[in-house]
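Section: Multi-chain targets

For targets with more than one molecule, the full set of components is provided together so that the structure can be written out for the assembly as a whole rather than chain by chain. Components appear in the order listed by the source. The example entry contains three components.
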Amino acid sequence: MLHPDRLFPADPTTRDIARRLYTGVKDLPIISPHGHTDPRWYAENEPFANPASLFVIPDHYIFRMLYSQGIALEKLGIPRLDGGPVETDPRKIWRLFAANYHLFRATPTRMWLDHAFETLFGLTDRLNAGNADRFYDVIDAALKTDAFRPRAMFERMKIEVISTTDGALDDLKWHRMIRESGWKGRVVPAYRPDAVVDPEFKGFRENIAALARISGCDTDTWDGYLAAHRQRRAYFKTFGCTSSDHGHPTAATGILSPEDAAALYARVITGPVSAADAEAFRAQMLTEMARMSIEDGLVLQIHPGSFRNHNAGIMESFGRDMGADIPQRTDYVKALKPLLDQFGTDPRLAIILFTLDETVYSRELAPLAGHYPCLKLGPAWWFFDAPDGMWRFRDLTTETAGFYNTVGFNDDTRAFPSIPARHDVARRVDCAFLASRVVAHRLDEDEAHELAYDLAYRLAKEAYRL
Amino acid sequence: MLHPDRLFPADPTTRDIARRLYTGVKDLPIISPHGHTDPRWYAENEPFANPASLFVIPDHYIFRMLYSQGIALEKLGIPRLDGGPVETDPRKIWRLFAANYHLFRATPTRMWLDHAFETLFGLTDRLNAGNADRFYDVIDAALKTDAFRPRAMFERMKIEVISTTDGALDDLKWHRMIRESGWKGRVVPAYRPDAVVDPEFKGFRENIAALARISGCDTDTWDGYLAAHRQRRAYFKTFGCTSSDHGHPTAATGILSPEDAAALYARVITGPVSAADAEAFRAQMLTEMARMSIEDGLVLQIHPGSFRNHNAGIMESFGRDMGADIPQRTDYVKALKPLLDQFGTDPRLAIILFTLDETVYSRELAPLAGHYPCLKLGPAWWFFDAPDGMWRFRDLTTETAGFYNTVGFNDDTRAFPSIPARHDVARRVDCAFLASRVVAHRLDEDEAHELAYDLAYRLAKEAYRL
Amino acid sequence: MLHPDRLFPADPTTRDIARRLYTGVKDLPIISPHGHTDPRWYAENEPFANPASLFVIPDHYIFRMLYSQGIALEKLGIPRLDGGPVETDPRKIWRLFAANYHLFRATPTRMWLDHAFETLFGLTDRLNAGNADRFYDVIDAALKTDAFRPRAMFERMKIEVISTTDGALDDLKWHRMIRESGWKGRVVPAYRPDAVVDPEFKGFRENIAALARISGCDTDTWDGYLAAHRQRRAYFKTFGCTSSDHGHPTAATGILSPEDAAALYARVITGPVSAADAEAFRAQMLTEMARMSIEDGLVLQIHPGSFRNHNAGIMESFGRDMGADIPQRTDYVKALKPLLDQFGTDPRLAIILFTLDETVYSRELAPLAGHYPCLKLGPAWWFFDAPDGMWRFRDLTTETAGFYNTVGFNDDTRAFPSIPARHDVARRVDCAFLASRVVAHRLDEDEAHELAYDLAYRLAKEAYRL
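Its structure, encoded as tokens over all components, is:
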């Protein structure tokens, strides 16, 4: 099912170049500097329960597409907030998924799944209603063996290092357990403080109180609150953390005086918070995080631009993260200027920018990253982490920012078996892109080999200081 | 002139796949679920007058390009509002058009015209000043024969069903005449109520009064006004109507309480209307139309984003629809949320979204359609209904929304002889796109054959409930 | 190093067509209707000083990329405003540049440099740390010969005509010196009045005073100020000027009454200027410039959308034009309407529109240029003046605006040795684009040959009235 030339250009000469480039990088270890796998998996190393709970139920790429074609989330076993009845038989969920596998034609989800089925489970035909049970049985049997426990899969996938994403209030007990277990797999946390940075985050004030408890700092004051962040960041660093991550609605940054910032903080932790104050506070906090990055060396990742939980009905019945996050227009040029005015020329600062608005690749992000030493471009993100999206990213950024202001690949996934597939897609697309430049004599092949290695391995490691 | 491989990829392997896919769909009947042909043609079945009045004078794609290069509209026979002199000799108009045929190089207009010249009239050389008279004579002679009357052409074009677009105040007499004639051609209306929904539409209040007369409802009240819409929709349905269509400046939708909506309605039908009230009323009416769609099953089409009649001088001299409609930035994520909050999870609702702002394909429309069951994406529209535009549509939507959240092709034309050409272009481009995915092993060829059929025929029929 | 097929499509059939098209245009003289070379070069005809001052120090494309990777501008010899120490040894600067040549992989800068090294200096290997000194020595020796003085290079490059860009206050003494020298090279100025049109331009009021002195007009009044512009434009025309050029933050145009315009002018030349007044004044001045263009025949170029000098730290240490200009979202549809309402149908008016926001190509600019006779599209600009950017320009504009509403190529450069390289890239990309349309049977090859000539030579000459 997996053709050795998949994703390579059609033209035979270009395809040959792409093949040669890919040969040099296909077996490199995986650097996964940003993602959402659960550290508990590696800590406890328990088997995954069944095919549906491994592949279908936790993957919003899958259930959003099925839902879009009229399949109720209840039938896919997604738990309702009210505890109402949902399908609990994993085999029935699997059959429904299999019968609708055609919906994923030409999507990345299909490619990741085919890759996992074949390389992990030896399943080489196309999933459909007819072979659904056989797929289920093969996968289910495999999952019950030691070779498919999380650590064994981690090693088989050749993951050199993986970062999870962890809330500021997380005690990192799973990370501690991994460390203390003596297992050699390198799993590090990333500092994601949205719940204590975004006044519109659910439970913000309770989160601030918890931050005080967990950090021992007095979060009733602006200075205490900042000290708590510093404390947590230092704590995360003891587990190998090298980056923070921020998922804001916009890329706005702020440049308030300490007095104004303290006053704003006092407002957001007490009275009802206006939308303007919430935005101003998030903006100021990006600048504060940049300041702390300069101090402690964590790389600052900014992931802006998603309208979260757009579907009110689904939000009410099923809660957050149900595939209803929709990108919006996002501006960076004015948004980042306050932060850059303050820290933009500091050689210690490292910021990685992401976007869900492809119009900014050529207009804003490549010109910014092609100038500011502190700015680099994260790879094509989320909806765009797919062959066409990756190609557009390179097409729209390379002429202005080059390759060396980008940071290699992030798989950004909570779908564990998709990790090798995702890195393989990125390597293939980058090799195809490089081959297209070689065949047009815009790049020499020896340079392309070096770049293929850099994009597959070196840049991620260096940009994330791993 | 028409090469059998036109629009297929250059790479020989990919081209072969595209050819095979196209062979399976090229002769399928035409489903034309959205367009602007005149029902009177089919009702009266009178011959078209002459080549200029068939091809040039009614086609704003043609005269906007000629005008852009300094050719006065008067010389093309476009009537002036003041009745001032314009060219009336169709042969002179034709010669001017022919002498400037090079302006259309690599545009879709050129492709549609070449297709019509060759397939309908057997003219196989390229139009130019030298052969203009011969083209004129051949076409003119053909138009005088029964084989070129509208119904005969309709049948020769293998149109299985075509929808016209009809104002809410239209008595549908031509549709009635078609039904009563016993002719088997299937021509259905679509409900386009802009003139009684948009307070900034010319003659809005007179239109509302006419709506009262034609519906028998009391349009002085909000409830009566809504009842009038229900009445007209039901009337349209008796002629086979399956969809409504809405051409608003933005995609804004509203979610007013019945009281606030009634108060807003009272304002827009009495005093001078503010721009804000006009926008709020159009927005609320999209939501009302969605509510009625749930009740009566009409599919809701939204065509937003055009700045109409941008050229003030042309508007003054020649009036509306003179090729001066210019797209604008259009946002959907916040705009559609009020409607979706109210009806977004109702399984009976079907909305087809169009855009003139290609930046929203990947950022907003594909994520929305890849989630909401009620939303599907209309094909590349208007300026983008052309090979490059169609390709970008697929490139930018498929990875997120797949193929099955799209609805096949609309020709959307008032240029009758261009209908087969337009569907042929769409089929060729879709086959080329599918072939590019097959050759990169992202899709199997058997799947591509099924998809080619779906995109050319099945999806349009199902999405429009035809 | 320079492969004869560079930038041509990979598919052999398409490549053959591209080669044939290119053969017909590669040796055409260069029309350079918009650029930033220094007229003093041609006037004095002094040798260029050394490789670093010819290639590195004045080229913000080069030093912005080096800076983005952490190389201090001081090390590249960029002078500081405070006169602080910077590198002064051109050989050391050259070595630093050479050691980082890999940063430019797949960027246009790399392509332009390789072209200049090989065609002007016979250097056929790839620049790197190892051959840096040899490159330096070869170039330095050549620059000391008469064959590398500006006029000799101008002639060798086959420049038929070049336009410089000159401030409204410029006395054009170098242009005068060129004329009086008897040299046959055709060098003309362009009228760029930003310094006396933009109230936010540094020294605006002093500039207005200087305008009074140089024009002899009373710039204390609105009428006198407009008369001064007319006087300067007429003066520029005596040196062959055929165009004006305007670099505004937005594309806004105005339509004030003479009284309101006079009042606005009085405000901007006296009290502190609000941002709104500054924008309104720039907007009004674009309309005034259009009025003058109708009178005197200068072609009006609009270059909007750059956030100038975005990096506050660099602005403070090094001043303007240090590679920190970042594009922003730019709207044209509403922005241009006031000007177009007043002059949009005047057959004497010629406006050339540029953009740094590629989203407007298909949404706004192609529809506008495909309708208004006074509007044409300038080529892909600045960051987009590169193979991928040029391809996107054609891909996104041709179906709506055709080729004949575009104006051929601008090199827009201050990097003298890059001029032939830039025109060569444009010719190759256009031939590649045309070939892709020929191979898909969207265009006949004889038409493509004519178009290749038009795009390489004729359209620029005609659009700029040269």
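Chain A touches chain C through 47 residues (CB under 8 Å).
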